[in-house]
Every structure is written in C-alpha cells, then in structure tokens.
Amino acid sequence: MATMDELRASVRRSFPELDVIEDDDLRDKVVEAWAFALSQTEFTAIEQIRGSGNPTTPRLKQGTQTEHLRGVARIALAMADSLEQVVGPAGINHDLLVACALCHDVGKPFEFSPRNQARWQADPAAVGYPSIRHPPYGVYVALTVGLPEAVAHTAGAHSGEGERVERSLENTIVHLADHAFWTILGRAGALTEAD
Ligand SMILES: [Fe+2]
Fold first, then answer.
1. Has this prediction a pTM greater than 0.90?
2. How many domains is the chain built from?
3. Protein residues near ligand 1, an ion, with CB under 5 A
4. Ligand 1 geometric centre to CA of 167 (Å)
5. What is the per-residue pLDDT across 32-84, written as a single tens digit (0 to 9) for each?
C-alpha cells in the first residue's frame, strides 16, 4: 500500500500543469485532493484509471485519465487566454480555473475502482450502482481537503448534475473544455467503442 507521501509525489508527476497555479496553498490542496482520492481505492497513480468520461463509455485509445485531466486543463486555459486576448479581461481567475480543471474528475478513482465496480455490480440493491457517481464524490473529496467552494462546485456540477444549478464562470469553462475533449477526440477516431 502506498503512503500518502508516495501518492502526493505520484500526483505531482502526473500533472505538470500544477506549475501554472501560482498560489502555493491552492496547488498543495489540488495534490492533496488527488492523493486522498487515490488513497480510498486500489489505485496508486492517476495513470491507472481508464481514460473515459464514465466507467463504461468510450476510452482513449492512447492515454489514461491523466491525459484527460491535463487536456481539459490546457483546453480551459487556452479558451480563457484566447478570449481575453481578443475581448480583454473577462474576470477569469486563472489559478482557480486550473485547480477546477485538474480537480473536476477527482471523484473518479472511487467510481472507476474495479473493486468498487465489482462490489456494486454483485448487489446493486445494497448501496446502488454506482452508490455515488464521481461528481458528488468529488465534492466530498474537495471539501474534505479544504479546497475552495468554487472547486467543489466544479467537481459536483461540471457534468449532468450541473444542469440543476447555475454554473460558476470557471466551471462553465471547465464544462465546455471537458465536452470539447471527448467530442473532438471522438470525431478524430481517438476513442474506442463503448464497452
Ligand atoms: Fe472530465
């Protein structure tokens, strides 16, 4: 079993984009969130999590959940930078945007864990299947490690759950970047068929 320090080091290796976050406390909490999320599962690195939006949806032919999160972070930053270069400052907090992008799927280790999947499939009547999808579980992780409310909101409302609320500015960008990632790569033939 990996120690928390080993998991933190693993997360830092997975995400070079952490360097974009200038706020030391925010950067450390992004690392803490992923290390904590991994520690609750059999995973010891984000690369071990399949590169798909949901446990059975098409996955990257080449790449893992790490490439998804890095891609979404870079797409989100590129959208913000491109717009602001043309229309001027739009009030986007770039530190927060990167933290939101890197943490939007922090609930996935729990939902994608083969151990949890097998347990849920064996008896869906017991605690549900899945018991908790990655967005609400991501809220639990984000708040547990003390990440800002805006990051917890993005984890919880970047996907379908977000249709019930008004998304924040940074979450709006992450939501679109996440959608762009899967839609563009699907059209490019870079994803497998669904399981
Ligand atoms: Fe995502």
1. yes
2. 1
3. 105, 178
4. 15
5. 999 999 999 999 999 999 999 999 999 999 999 999 999 999 999 999 999 99
